[in-house]
Design brief:
The protein is mainly α. It has one domain: Jann2411-like domain (Jann2411-like fold). It contains 7 helices and 4 strands. The strands form 2 sheets. A two-stranded antiparallel ribbon has the order 1-2. A two-stranded antiparallel ribbon has the order 3-4. Helix 3 crosses helix 4. It is globular. It comes from Streptomyces swartbergensis.
């Protein structure tokens, strides 16, 4: 996915290649999940729920729960066993615990045009949505091919971790449009400055 559709004062990104990694991206360049409205936009933008799913029942406890899960996933993705086994084991236990809950139940229904569309069986609860993200994290850390494709963005001060599915596994940036473009602009400016000097 490309950049999210959320508007200022926040911009959400969905280009890390996995929902759990997109959740990690919500810390850059600053905390994004600081309100229920932003979390609703992230939940919809990430594809956890169909675009027309009502999330009016989300309350102020939801952002804290998603931030807590984000921290545990970050430990699993960045801190492989051996580099702090206690923290890693705690994160693993917590993610496994959250993954136990059944994720939102999808169903196929006829849309207004007669085509089949995905809808949820009812309003999704926070535990069900957390479970969907936690299950994605479990799938990621237990898949050796996916783990081998994890990369840290090479952009200046960019902490985003993404799944490199590019041909030849040579992707350098979390997003060519964001960090890649910044790097190309900086390179151009350096060359222009050398030419002037």
């Amino acid at each position: 996915m490309a950049l999210g559709t959320a508007t200022a004062p926040y911009e959400l990104r969905f280009d890390a290649g996995r929902i759990c990694l997109d959740l990690l991206s919500t810390t850059h360049p600053e905390e994004r999940l600081d309100s229920v409205d932003v979390l609703r936009a992230w939940i919809t933008g990430s594809g956890l729920v169909p675009a027309d799913t009502a999330l009016a029942h989300a309350d102020a406890t939801w952002p804290a729960a998603f931030r807590e899960l984000r921290g545990q996933i970050d430990r699993l993705v960045r801190g492989w066993p051996g580099s702090g086994a206690r923290a890693y084991d705690f994160a693993l236990a917590r993610v496994n615990d959250l993954a136990r809950t059944a994720p939102p139940a999808p169903r196929a229904v006829r849309g207004s045009d007669g085509e089949l569309v995905r809808q949820l069986d009812g309003p999704p609860g926070c535990p069900a949505l957390l479970a969907a993200v936690a299950r994605d994290a479990v799938d990621l850390v237990t898949d050796p091919v996916a783990r081998a494709a994890l990369r840290q963005c090479e952009g200046d001060n960019c902490p985003i971790v993404y799944l490199d599915t590019s041909r030849g596994r040579r992707r350098r940036w979390c997003s060519s449009e964001v960090c890649g473009n910044r790097e190309r602009v900086a390179r151009h400016r350096r060359r222009a400055a050398l030419t002037r000097a």
